[in-house]
Structure formats: structure tokens, C-alpha cells
Design goal:
Blueprint (H helix, E strand, L loop, with lengths): L25 H13 L5 E8 L6 E7 L11 E7 L8 E6 L2 E4 L5 H17 L1
Antiparallel strand pairs: 1-2, 2-3, 3-4, 4-5
């Protein structure tokens, strides 16, 4: 006797980084980089320092993956640099957890992560 098991199809949810999003400034773009790198839908942002007029333009911010984190607990940091202060921004470099990711990183895995995030940004805009 054959047993028939029902087939269960799970609908794939598109990653937030692959959806079209409105990135209006370097702050938004850096938050996008953090969310994409961490592979989370949202982060709780603490302090934001934005530098759209510097060369290269960029932003630095504190964040937490815990949405209920208290202000004192928001202590992870990311720093982002872009080619332009306006969309499409074009990511040049970002640093998280004392590691910097860029097209010219010495470590091939760091270069790969940079290329992946840059690709996600180009798809999202």
C-alpha cells in the first residue's frame, strides 16, 4: 500500500534587500547596508551621524538587532561611504564589527560581502 503524503509548498518571502525601497539620503542608504548585511528586516537605530557634504559622503550610526533595546544597549556600529550623497549613492566602503568591506579589501570573503551588498543596493533602487 502506498502512502501519500501531502505536499506542502512554502511561499518564499522576498528578502527586504531585494524589494524596491526609497533611499532618500546617506542615512537611509547606510541603514539599508546594515539590514542587508545582517539579513534582517529591521534594526533599531540609535545615534546617526550623517556627512553628505564630505568627500566621500557617508554616515555612521549605532544600531541593535533587538527592536526593544534600550538606548544604552544600542551599541553596534556601522560606517558607510558612498560615491554620491544622492541616489543611487553607489557604495564605496562600509565597516561593521571592526571589519571594513570594499572592492579592494585584501580578504576575498570581505570583497565578496561588499560586492553582494552593492548588488543588493542596485536592485533595491
Amino acid at each position: 500500500m502506498k502512502r501519500l503524503f501531502p505536499l506542502i509548498f512554502l511561499a518564499a518571502t522576498p528578502a527586504i534587500a531585494q524589494e524596491k525601497v526609497q533611499l532618500t539620503n546617506v542615512d537611509d542608504a547606510c541603514i539599508f547596508v546594515a539590514r542587508s548585511m545582517l539579513m534582517v528586516e529591521d534594526i533599531k537605530v540609535g545615534i546617526v551621524q550623517s556627512f553628505p557634504t564630505l568627500e566621500p559622503p557617508g554616515a555612521r550610526l549605532t544600531y541593535s538587532e533587538q527592536m526593544d533595546a534600550e538606548a544604552a544597549e544600542i551599541d553596534d556600529q556601522i560606517e558607510c561611504q558612498f560615491e554620491d550623497a544622492e541616489a543611487p549613492f553607489r557604495l564605496l566602503r562600509y565597516c561593521m564589527d571592526s571589519v571594513c568591506y570594499a572592492a579592494d579589501s585584501n580578504d576575498p570573503e570581505d570583497r565578496r560581502r561588499f560586492t553582494e551588498i552593492r548588488e543588493l543596493m542596485s536592485r533595491a533602487q
